[in-house]
Design a protein that fits this description.
Blueprint lengths: L3 H14 L27 E5 L5 E8 L26 H13 L5 E5 L6 H18 L5 E5 L6 H10 L2 E3 L7 H7 L5 H20 L25 H9 L18 E7 L6 H15 L3 E6 L18 H16 L4 H4 L13 H8 L6 E2 L5 H4 L7 H11 L6 H7 L3 H4 L3 E3 L2 E2 L7 H15 L16 H7 L2 H6 L4
Helix pairs in contact: 2-3, 3-4, 4-6, 8-9
The structure holds iron/sulfur cluster.
Length: 479
């Protein structure tokens, strides 16, 4: 093992090189106070969300940033003038387990540049993961990147060690891939994606998969519990120099599924193309997530946006909102954008934009429409839709109930009626609603002044009028 200084230098270079990959959900934060404990940015610790909603810390790092490819958009490309470093498998395994023991991290997010060839890099990654799992007994979360073009055997072996796999699609079309990353081929990206999907399906179909009291005992090469291991498994261990599976180890192929990432704004594709591609990835490959990464110009190239171009963060945000609509609200990509309007409105969210383009479907009566229709109303989320349906069983939902239920009333009011009454004020016309919603947004963000608000006074005019309102006084309700 090299000295501490060398390891720290490698850690610094390889954690910094990994920061543009967003498919682990977030990047390390830069804390500038050097007299305090902890340096998340330098040591590459980022945060991700576990399946049960917990925020977990991951060591986000590249195995190597020495790349034989020359992708135009990448800081680590062969022709870039950057510091280079690579881990040895033992170094990475040791580093991860030491971080884990010190409670700095709960898992590892491991990617790599293409050092020598995809298979050469994948073999070294596999060796590191095998050491980590079998020699150091690490059973925490591992997210491993599969390099496009890697052989099927290695995908399978890495999948047996990792919880989640990802193959980055990088760019939305083959044409852009050919221009910006000519060494990567669409087939080299889609083939491992398909293999991961098929292997997960095959594993799921095994009777008793994941249940140590059933078929698992027969020992198959997805679920190894120390019974008679198939010879093929032992052969593979020897072939790739892996640490032999421990007798008690239980391995499953990528139990947390697969994800991918697409760069936004480096190439001229429309939001429609991007969202259609992402819908097809969810359908074909059962992706857990498609991540979008706003392109940050870090290299100067005539094929890319100029160096000082701001990253399209708002566009990225709109794409994530649209992705949410695809996954949880029953929308299709075709509904969200069409050929005439292929980009999302940056001023309003995609659900509002869709509703404004389909005002013929609104207003919807909150007390009558189906769950599917409720989910189409801007301002109504999954939970509030469920609450509305539940409350309707007890009695009609009133406009005042909506806020308590969790509906964003200031958005929903233009698209609903509540017990037959419309609360949107004014015309149900696309431009009027758009204007009103935009002014609300501007008021919220401080771009427009709020109307003068007055502190209620015991002796103010409104109160005085009420006090002397004859009908109320006669009923003895006031005074
Ligand atoms: S393969 Fe392309 S994107 Fe990946 S590290 Fe190498 S140059 Fe960068």
């Amino acid at each position: 093992m090299p000295g501490l200084d060398v390891m720290l230098e490698k850690l610094k270079i390889l954690a910094d090189s990994a920061k543009y990959d967003v498919s682990c959900s977030s990047s390390g934060a830069d804390r500038t106070k050097t007299n305090k404990m902890g340096t998340a940015a330098v040591s590459g610790i980022c945060h991700s969300w576990s399946a049960d909603g917990r925020c977990i810390s991951l060591l986000k790092i590249l195995f190597s940033n020495r790349c034989v490819y020359d992708c135009e958009y990448c800081v680590n490309r062969r022709s870039a003038d950057v510091q280079r470093a690579s881990f040895e498998p033992e170094e990475l395994a040791k580093l991860t387990i030491e971080f884990y023991k010190r409670n700095y991290i709960e898992g590892l997010f491991l990617s790599s540049a293409v050092e020598v060839s995809p298979d050469y890099t994948a073999e070294r990654i596999l060796k590191a993961l095998s050491l980590l799992r079998e020699k150091y007994g690490f059973s925490g979360y591992i997210h491993a990147k599969i390099i496009p073009g890697v052989s099927a055997e290695l995908v399978r072996q890495i999948g047996m060690q990792a919880d989640r796999l990802s193959v980055n699609i990088e760019l939305p079309t083959k044409e852009s891939l050919a221009i910006l990353a000519p060494q990567k081929k669409a087939a080299g990206i889609l083939t491992p994606m398909r293999q991961i999907t098929n292997t997960m399906k095959e594993q799921k179909s095994l009777k008793g998969a994941g249940n140590r009291f059933s078929k698992l005992k027969q020992g198959n090469d997805y679920l190894l519990n120390g019974m008679a291991l198939p010879t093929a498994v032992r052969e593979q261990e020897a072939k790739y120099g892996m640490v032999p599976y421990d007798k008690g180890s239980l391995h499953r192929f990528a139990p947390a599924g697969q994800t991918t990432q697409m760069i936004i704004g480096a190439t001229p594709e429309s939001d429609r193309q991007i969202i259609r591609m992402s819908e097809s990835l969810y359908k074909k490959f059962q992706m857990k997530r498609v991540y979008f990464s706003a392109y940050i110009p870090v290299v100067s190239s005539s094929k890319l946006p100029a160096l000082l171009t701001p990253p399209p963060l708002l566009r990225e945000h709109r794409l994530y909102q649209a992705d949410w609509l695809l996954r949880f609200y029953g929308f299709s990509a075709e509904e969200l954008l069409d050929e005439d309007s292929p980009f999302f409105d940056l001023e309003l969210d995609p659900k509002v934009t869709w509703a404004l383009r389909h005002l013929e479907l609104f207003p919807l009566e909150i007390n009558k429409v189906s769950m599917e229709e409720l989910l189409r109303i801007p301002g109504v989320g999954n939970i509030s839709a469920m609450r509305i349906v539940r409350q309707r069983r007890l009695g009609a939902v009133t406009f005042d109930d909506l806020k308590k239920i969790g509906v964003v009333v200031k958005r929903a009011r233009y698209f609903i009626t509540c017990n037959g009454k419309y609360y949107g004020a004014g015309d149900i016309a696309s431009e009027c609603i758009r204007e009103r919603m935009l002014s609300q947004e501007k008021i919220r963000s401080g771009l427009l002044p709020r109307e003068k608000e007055e502190q209620l006074s015991l002796f103010g005019s409104e109160r005085r009028n009420l006090l002397y309102e004859p009908k109320e006084a006669a009923r003895g309700l006031l005074v």
